[in-house]
């Protein structure tokens, strides 16, 4: 499935980010601007309707693929086995940080009318999982009384943006509880073949560099700084 995600910060009045304790979480890279919408996995024990669930993050699904029948402005949609579509709500407000669950929640409202007169809506709970780059949303619950579909998405995009400095080829991220130690890499030589050229990377010890490089964490990337 092809997704072309938006790689820049939004300039709309409802940005796809949230700030808490002076730390920012941006979901903007999950916004699909071209291609196909995200398809959610049904994580319940049973799927009696054999339906398909489509989601975009801070954007519309109705403009992607063949989902125009989801309804104008729809950000989440269900395609039932009988071929009918249900609009699960539109993106109207910024995501919110929930301190109790340590997650980010994005709510879509104003969907198709439900059987009890309410309008279908949906909630996506984003959970920080370092390294989960190409993960998919999971349907966890359907609340018929509240006319709400609930999804969970474990992804690295839900991790706070931050820069953390380390020394001696070690760095510890206290927010994620992860200790990075690259010292085992210092006794080897690594070959990178780019086609016409080959590059050889050696450790600081082998190159006899007395200055120990510093490691910086930029969200999901380790960067060496000499």
Topology, element by element:
Layout lengths: L2 E3 L11 E4 L2 E4 L5 E4 L2 E5 L9 E4 L20 E4 L5 E3 L2 E2 L4 E3 L4 E7 L11 E8 L9 E6 L4 E8 L7 E4 L3 E4 L4 E4 L7 E5 L4 E5 L11 E5 L2 E5 L1
Parallel strand pairs: 5-13, 12-14
Antiparallel strand pairs: 1-4, 2-3, 5-6, 6-7, 7-8, 9-11, 10-11, 11-12, 13-14, 15-20, 16-17, 18-19, 20-21
Radius of gyration: 22 Å
Order of helices and strands: EEEEEEEEEEEEEEEEEEEEE
Overall spatial form: elongated
Q: Helix proportion of residues, in percent?
A: under 10%
Structural class: mainly beta
Number of beta strands: 21
Low-confidence stretches: 4-14, 206-217, 219-223
Whole-Å distance between the termini? 40 Å
Largest sheet features: 10 strands, mixed
Mean pLDDT across all amino acids: 81
Counting DSSP H or I runs of 4 or more residues, the number of helices is 0
Beta-strand percentage? 35-45%
Give a description of the structure.
The structure is a single chain. The protein is mainly β and 226 residues long. The protein has no helices and 21 strands. It is elongated. The two termini are 40 Å apart.
In a nutshell, what does this entry contain?
One of its GO terms (cellular component) is endosome membrane. Keywords: Disulfide bond, Membrane, Signal, Transmembrane, Transmembrane helix, Transport. The chain has 226 residues and is an all-beta fold.
